[in-house]
Amino acid sequence: MDPVTTAAQYRTVVIEGCDGTGKTTLARRLTGEHGFSHVHATRTPDHLDLTTRYLHILDTDNRLVMDRSFVSELVYGPLQRGRSRLTWAQVLDLAEAVTQRTGVFIHLTAPADIVHARLLLRDGQGDAPDALTALLAAYERAFRTLTDHATVITIDTAQHDLRSTG
């Protein structure tokens, strides 16, 4: 099934995956074709409470697509800073808030060599394939746990025409 059609069935869509998997492309299509409000989450400064920030974002009546979110903290935090600023209990509370909004988590993935090639094409640079392999594996682990608590759909964007645009 087409990733856009799949995601559009929900009121809230949280799109996650490492850079180059097509998160922003999917978010832009949901915004343009299905009227979602688009929130592109950037790194929250250390002094701000992540749980409160994301609960505030989720407190809207609009259809919402989140282009990266709190799941990224579970992945990038340990790999880049040695720890996540969120506990699993906090993440599960946030996942429940997504679920209550008739939400879904879309886990975008692709083989590391394809992601690397996309990043080179898009940015002229990208993480080395071994670093991308670690990121992809960390997302896989996070979503394996999250699947027990929320609806998660994993889409291999190498199998779909959903290339990253930035």
Output the number of helix runs: 7
- Overall radius of gyration: 15 Å
- The CA-CA distance between the termini, in Å, is 24 Å
Q: Provide the CATH top-level class.
A: Alpha Beta
Instruction: Supply the helix-strand structural class.
Output: alpha/beta
Q: Average pLDDT across residues?
A: 91
- Residue stretches low in confidence (pLDDT < 50, at least 5 long) are none
Features:
15% strand, globular, 166 residues, 7 helices, alpha/beta, five-stranded parallel beta sheet
Structure overview:
With 166 residues, the protein is an alpha/beta fold. It has one domain (3-156): P-loop containing nucleotide triphosphate hydrolases (Rossmann fold), CATH 3.40.50.300. It is 49% helix and 15% strand. It has helices at residues 3-7, 23-34, 50-58, 70-81, 88-100, 112-123, 129-146, and strands at residues 12-16, 37-40, 64-67, 103-109, 152-156. A five-stranded parallel sheet has the order 2-3-1-4-5, sandwiched between helices. Helix 3 links the parallel strand 2 (37-40) and strand 3. Helix 6 crosses helix 7 (129-146).
Brief overview:
The chain has helices spanning about 5, 25-35, 50-60, 70-80, 90-100, 110-125, 130-145; strands at about 10-15, 35-40, 65, 105-110, 150-155. The longest helix has 18 residues, at about 130-145. The model has no long low-confidence stretch (mean pLDDT about 90).
